[in-house]
Specification:
3 helices, globular, 15% helix, 232 residues, three-stranded antiparallel beta sheet
């Protein structure tokens, strides 16, 4: 698959966010022919990925397996180095094309607040933007009442107990106030990849809801990989 070939010298950088100093890995110009991914998305049947309990606020469709395998293989050394994991091997990877489509007034309560994907510290989100900066990137948050920036298995019960007494934003998350504080963000850019631990509190930043569209060529299209590692 041509679009899954990384360019000769992609621009990678890393940093940390918050008091917990969680690493964030960013790779610009990630693929040499990202338009091939757009053509693949054109031919897919996207379906809703949400329900009354929340979920992704839009549509999803499976991404090509060859793309997933190439991205995971190519990024594993950088992930191991950035997150200080030592020798690792991927044991599971799931991926979908995703398009945010829900208008702010149709969001469920969980979709109006920062979230984690799992409490497993070995799972990582690899988010590939296939849209431009107008659609907003991804922001990371601290929960003010607990001080948590990551939600581990040990923290989950306390976090959920406190959150049950709190409210949520009126629409898509911005600064998170008064219950959350934004501690960092990565802007969207076409063909940019960002990697972070799935247990880090985060939310997509939807800067212009009026631009949301179910059309992969016109909407907030991303490829979302969730990869789980084990020590090798």
């Amino acid at each position: 698959m041509t679009s899954a070939s990384p360019p000769p010298a992609p621009i990678a950088r890393s940093g940390v966010v918050g008091a917990e100093r969680e690493p964030i890995l960013q790779l610009d110009d990630a693929l040499d022919a990202p338009e091939t991914l757009l053509r693949a998305a054109d031919d897919l049947a996207f379906a809703p990925a949400f329900g009354p309990a929340g979920g992704y606020p839009g549509l999803r469709a499976p991404a090509p397996r060859a793309y997933v395998e190439t991205i995971v293989a190519g990024l594993t050394p950088a992930i191991a180095a950035t997150f200080g994991l030592g020798a690792i091997r991927p044991v599971k990877a799931d991926c979908a094309f995703s398009i945010v489509t829900l208008p702010p007034d149709r969001l469920s309560r969980p979709q109006r607040a920062p979230h984690v994907d799992t409490t497993d510290r070995w799972q990582f989100a690899i988010l590939h933007y296939l849209c431009d900066a107008r659609f907003g990137g991804t922001a990371f948050y601290r929960h003010r009442a607990t001080g948590y920036e990551t939600v581990t298995a040990e923290r989950e019960a306390a976090f959920r107990t406190v959150r049950a007494r709190e409210g949520e934003s009126s629409g898509y998350v911005e600064d998170g106030a008064p219950w959350f504080e934004r501690i960092g963000e990565v802007a969207a850019a076409f063909n940019r990849v960002v990697v972070y631990r799935s247990q880090l509190l985060h939310s997509g930043r939807i800067l212009a809801p009026e631009l949301l569209s179910p059309d992969p060529r016109r909407g907030r299209l991303t490829a979302n990989i969730f990869v789980t590692y084990a020590p090798d």
